[in-house]
Batch of 2 targets.
Target 1
Amino acid sequence: MFSLSQTKGSNKNNPFDLNNTDAYHYWRDKKLSGYPTSIDELLIEIKDPRALSAAEYQTIIRSCGKTNMALYRSETVGDSDKNIPLMLAKQLGLRLLDHNWLADKEGVTSLTVRPTGERSHYIPYTNRPIHWHTDGYYNPAHRQIHSLLLHCVASAAQGGENALLDHEIAYILIRDENPDYIRALMANDAMTIPARISDTGTARPDQPGPVFSINPVSGDLHMRYTARTRSIIWEHHALTREAVDFVSQLLDSDSGYIFRGRLEPGMGLISNNVLHDRAGFENDALHERLLYRARFYDRIRDTGMRKVFQF
Ligand SMILES: [Fe+2]
């Protein structure tokens, strides 16, 4: 039987450590027990994300502790205040905002179709579908994204749904299939994003790194992944190839753990950077999709594995 007393403050008995099957099974059973079976169970009605009530806050934290995500529906329809995701983040303990170079000056990114200019070259600023990924997979190790907030100001005339999969559930499904797949995906050179060369030279060097990694301080699991097949180099090992194939089959499957839905105005996603995709969409004169996105290097407060599962 797994002993709780051995685990405090160390990764020795971390469930994500392949050498520790007792801790893994203890955590896995707790994680899967009562796990939501429909996206409706993730949806929380809130008044204003800028000023959560104590009850709203607790419900969000509980949901993110269980599934690494929560969806909210708020009474902010028609309000395009960019402070919504920033003020929400502050209440959730998120302090380390990722100011990526295409973000607006507040550090919030406005995801909307940009027909011209620098942003128009990047798929998030088009109406095209985006394959499964976690955010910031191209970032260096010290700038990995641990949480992601989306707030919908306006939805498209048609389409733009998201699929969502808790990355800890993905870990379980992969490890249960073959623990060696996890071993391959934890290798430091499992997935490399090749350098981006700009007109003036190298804009960004090669970014090799693992798919799954364990935070050395908190013990939490992080996932770095993209289903894109161009501009990505997987380690040439046969086991890595098999593992990657298994992951893409899982993400293409109709697994009950994959939640699908569309953010409507006033709604938002709060997540510890779970796996997600985006369907293509069509705008019309009255419906131009606009989502605010804020990404952080920290995880939502009190949703870590040790706190939630009392490791
Ligand atoms: Fe994303």
Target 2
Amino acid sequence: MAHIRPFRAGDEPALADICLRTADSGADATGLLDDDDLWAEIFVLPYVARHPDLAFVVESDDGRVVGYIVSAPDTAAFEEWFRAEWWPRHSARWPRPPAERSRQDGILQYAYGRGRADVPYSAQYPAHLHIDLLPEAQGQGWGRRLIDMLVAELQGRGVPGLHLVATADNAGALSFYPRVGFTPLPSSAGVQAFGRALA
Ligand SMILES: CC(C)(COP(=O)(O)OP(=O)(O)OC[C@H]1O[C@@H](n2cnc3c(N)ncnc32)[C@H](O)[C@@H]1OP(=O)(O)O)[C@@H](O)C(=O)NCCC(=O)NCCS
């Protein structure tokens, strides 16, 4: 039976693969950048490195990991850790681009900028999340169950709110979050943020 279980060490390659295969506004991002590995090093692996106890996975009938939710309970602290400790490990492999000439340059500039500016939304909604399911696992209630699981865990720790930022052209995500308790927040061009109070 497919089920949700806590993240465990060794799941990282499966999480990186799911991240890549859903990173282009919900669609497969394979081959979009010069280096497919970059997505996971920014959007999923730092979370399970820093907060493995706030990550849950969907395991299929045949024992494969087909989806995940990861989170940081204190976004400002997480961004600071990302800047000071996580990203420097990657700066030799992916140097800072001098200008934004490609999509990869834009993503690298985002990574280099993390922890260097005020974090929007974090006063009211200190935690943030990333959730991704392979197409085979979508539309069966796993997304809602993963959100419920994370919300219960964060509530147990007294975290007052949770947010996330989706790309504005991710139609599936824009439909999903309001159905699972999130409210749209004022957002920059090209993205749509959502928040949910947990008190
Ligand atoms: C977005 C995503 C996490 C939703 O998870 P899911 O398991 O497919 O969604 P669920 O089956 O739990 O659906 C929960 C509710 O959202 C709605 N919903 C989910 N996906 C939807 C879609 N693509 N279009 C319209 N409604 C959708 C469902 O109808 C359901 O509503 P209801 O319970 O009121 O009937 C998942 O589809 C996914 O991983 N997509 C690709 C990666 C991605 O875009 N991640 C988010 C990045 S911000």
